[in-house]
């Protein structure tokens, strides 16, 4: 019965989120079991530019080391990836997969450029934070629940995660970069043309519509901010959220004890 429920849940994941989520599960597990070296998955400027190992651009977003204490952080990132990517894809991007793919590609391009300069070898965290930030800006007044039952408006969630990782994480650099990249997309796509009356500086390339055609019944008026409206946290995905949090705690404990 449980396997049927998980299978039904997996089939219900929207198309683009399913690809991203699946890659973010499969690739770290393959590397964890030694089937491929992580050195082939991280972002390296010299290998990408001089050796044309272009796959690193994408694997650096999907791969995250899950050994030891990093396992818990990885599973939390996976939880945020699923939760907020689904909400965006089924919200303002509903019926417009090409526009959602373009948003992800724009964020990825910005992160790769920053990764080459910084340099950064792993981009999963800032990519997830950039998507989470965009959803939070489009749903500023929605009340979200964080650890220990604390509740606050969605507009504060990225900064709470930044502060959280400043205290117990790796210094918050990845979260800050994700926030900056997410804000750049949000500003250029929504805030600048709508609030400042400027020209629309971002638009989805036409070739993406060929591979990801719009579906009928999607959200109309793309590129225009939707009015903030309450969105309950405990919707029909509540059981899945609980499953993820329980899985995070149990797997992180198992990984820690095995090392």
UniProtKB/TrEMBL annotation:
Domain of life (superkingdom): Eukaryota
InterPro entries, sorted: DER1, Rhomboid-like_sf
Protein's membrane topology: Multi-pass membrane protein
Membrane-traversing stretches: 20-41, 100-124, 144-166, 173-192
GO process terms (BP): response to stress
Cellular localisation: Endoplasmic reticulum membrane
Main subcellular location of this protein, as a coarse class: endoplasmic reticulum
GO cellular component: endoplasmic reticulum membrane
Keywords assigned: Endoplasmic reticulum, Membrane, Transmembrane, Transmembrane helix
Family to which this protein belongs: Belongs to the derlin family.
PANTHER family: DER1-LIKE PROTEIN, DERLIN
Protein function: May be involved in the degradation of misfolded endoplasmic reticulum (ER) luminal proteins.
Full protein name: Derlin
